[in-house]
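Troubleshooting entry. The earlier prediction with magnesium ion gave an output that would not parse, so I re-checked the input for stray whitespace and re-submitted. Clean input:
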Amino acid sequence: MKQFHSFRLDPVSRRLWRGDEPVTLAPKAFEVLRYLVQHADRLVTQEEMLEAVWPDTHVNPEVIKKYVLEIRKVLGDRSDRPTFIETFPRRGYQFVAPVHETSSDTSAREPVRPVNMVGRDASRTLLESCLDRALKAQRQVVFVTGESGVGKTTLVDAFLRRAAARASLRIARGQCVEGFGGKESYYPILEALGQLLREPERNPVVAALVRYAPTWLVQFPSLVKAEAREALHRETIGTTRERMVREVCEALEHIAVDEPLVLVLEDLHWVDLSTLDVISALARRRAPAKLVLLCTYRPADVVVAESPLRVLKQDLLVHELCVEVPLEHLAESDVGEYLEAEFAGADFPGGLGRLIHRQSDGNALFMTAIARDMVEKGVVAERDGRWTLTRPLADLAPEVPATLQEMLEAQFTRLSAAEQRILSQASVAGERFSLWALMTERDLPPDAIENACETLGERRRFLRPAGVHELPNGTVSAHYEFRHALYRESVYRRLSDVTRARLHRMLAERLEGLGSRGRRELAAEIALHFEKGLTYDRAIAYLVIAAENAAARFAYRDSIQVLRNALTLLPRVAAEDRAALEAQLLERIGDAHYWLGEMAECARAYEAEAAQAARNGLTAVQVNALSFLIRPFGLTDPDRGITAVEKAVALSRDLGDPVLHARTELLAAGSRLLYDTWHREDWEICESAHRRLEALSPADVPDYHRMIYAHLLLLQGHYAEALTNLEGGIPKIDEPTSLMVHLFALSGKTVALLHSGRLGELMRIVRAGREMAHKNGNDPWIFVFREAWLRCVVLDFDGARRLCDSVVGTATSDLARQPQTIARLAAGYAELEQGRHDGAARCFEEILDPAITPKFFVHWYWRLNAQLGLSNVWLAAGNLDRARSDADQFLASALSTAEPNLHVLGWDVQARIAVAAKDWNGAEASIERGLDVLERFDVPTVAWRLHATRSELSRHLKNEEAAEAHRVRAEGVILGLASSFEPDEPLRHAFLDASPVRRILRPGPSHRRVRERR
Ligand SMILES: Nc1ncnc2c1ncn2[C@@H]1O[C@H](COP(=O)(O)OP(=O)(O)O)[C@@H](O)[C@H]1O
Ligand SMILES: [Mg+2]
């Protein structure tokens, strides 16, 4: 309810009051006012107003003026000195009076008049005692079970009314929808949360989501300020189902700390699996919470649907984590009581109750329907203010229909033709529907539909009003719902197959008209209607969107499930469309497995896609599918990945699609460089492909390709340019979340920071990444071994090895290759420090042995480092020949790459060996070559070593002055690296304390003198 000055506007009942007086306004004038009031914070343009109030008709903007005039008259407003509506000539209008929200306006579900509930005393007591316990912060999970129409919802409603009278509490309801299970992850939970978020006292709810459930907060974009959206998006990338579930539990528990919360989830026989996870978790968690989770379902339908709900409830019961309230049929005495309450003071013959009880078998819905039917037929009538039976009881029995279905059918046939048509359409639309959705046929004008629903609702036949709600395209429409699911079913069942399909299809097309936002939000529903409308290709298209929606809720398993579902529809699609659709579905299944880190399944899906495309002559699709294979195979079997992309290149050559060809070439050459060895020619292919792509169509360079390219830049020392490319790979809002591309980008970024000596920044990313992985229950491997690499660079070899060992145990074997290698490298240097040369050599040799260390991402970089390690071992052991042989090999290999760090290290080790051999000229020459590299590249993590070697050489040459100058340069680089850390970062101290560094920072007495002179 919106209040401004003395006026109150109820958007649900579409009424306006001045004080307690109702004010009359034409319906469209009301809509104009409602729209202005609801957007009171801003100017509403004429176009926007036309779109909102007259979505389907073309009207002259002048019309708005007319209505505004009428509104002003009613409100007593003046256009020259407006209190309410200000006109901005030719632009639009703004509502300027302060607007307050009074009481909640979403109580539309509440029936006009509470049911006179009979019986159920024991069930009520049971529920009451649950509430007692919940109020003492012992969470309660209750399942109210029973057949359709037995009275579950009625009991829940009565309980809620009592509960609300007893304590101030929050109530949220979520309703499962037939046909949505498995397609709409978390549907009822999101609905219930949405309700809490529309309440006037929503602030604690918002706060709880912000604090405890960012992954749920992103599901309600309107709650997030634009500037916070990107950060939130990044923070939730790679979220797992476990995290979603844990977070919503935590948020609900915190909402229920001060004010009790009753969460009602209705009709769980149609529930989705993700919601079941939440129910299970809520029931099992132990933290105190004033929470009642009240669920209803029909056991028979749970069995039919083979839903895991039955097992879940059983398990919770066994562990006394839930309470079941099974509802039985009403007793004869209950029926009598019902008649007394419903027809107060009636003098019915005693047998009436018995008759109704026998006929309805104690099904509450059937019972009330019989009673209402009797009134309608005049069998029960009010005479002189008293309800009486107008005919002898004995005559009645044969007239009462034997089943509820029969009775509803009879009632249906008594409706007008138009009413029947509208109800038929509505039964296709679902238990609750908007009038807007029904407006599909020309000969049934909107007014006729509105009137029919209104009368059906007023006479309490079949329908009841369910409030006025905004549709995803901003249109406001009255909603109605069937009085009960069985009413809808009875109408729906009457339809012939042909009519049913036609109505479903028409409805699907109508819903498509809700614009792109609506199409996305309602994808599962539209898919369902197209499927039942026998339009399978479009059903599949919407299932694909539904799968994306599931992924946006981090429910990748559901996403795969939806896509597999779509695959089963394929045989019914026209042959010529089938192949392309199948490829698309397989591709998305592969993607979802990739996001889940399931590389074998992922590769299987892409391979199936490639094979299928090949069979059907879809070469471009085949090229793409083969290209995708490098992603999973890069992690599990790089050679197989490279073979696949090379095949893709060959196929793409003759397709006449230069973008695709360039893309594939970039990928193939890039994969060879990253997973096999560095070859200059391959880099040239990449560069040329990249150049062509940027010229042809920069938007068509996929993120993954960008990441590959950025890593190639990194390997050549172009850190700034790489960083720019990498930033682009950290996904933005509204993009499907790809954890792997994100990690790929982040891991590249850490390498860039490492080599440019921005070590503190690197540590910050590592810490944040580890924290995110922890929240998601993911393996933090990538961050762990980046830190390990950093530790090697700052000479904390023991720390590096410990870290790697901690992930090697947990990471799957494919992912473990990189940390394993770093661990071996670190172990080698640790052994070397201890003077254990054999042990050190063994470590480095293991890295060089492909049988022990198979290929992995940039494995060659690590192998080169191992070769350097070996050379260092022989040098330390005084075996100059072997040292030189390894150093020569290392230098040659390093120079065959474009990696400047390796080049510097290659020249440095040459120089050190030369110094050891007293070959001063040779040393000088090597150092010169190394310095050349330093001229061109800023590579501080290796630069200090070369300066140190140079200082050493000068000392041997007795040039103390030069020795000190070079030492100071080395020192400067070291201090620069150290100061890039936070002051209290332990790694900073470890670095400054490492003996090679100490030797430079705290030289012998003669040097100190020179330093003091400076
Ligand atoms: N205990 C009761 N006493 C009187 N009427 C009842 C009772 N339970 C249900 N009804 C009537 O039966 C109708 C169907 O009950 P409902 O609670 O919607 O069934 P369910 O949710 O189990 O399918 C209600 O609209 C109400 O009119
Ligand atoms: Mg119900």
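This one parsed fine. The mean pLDDT is 90.
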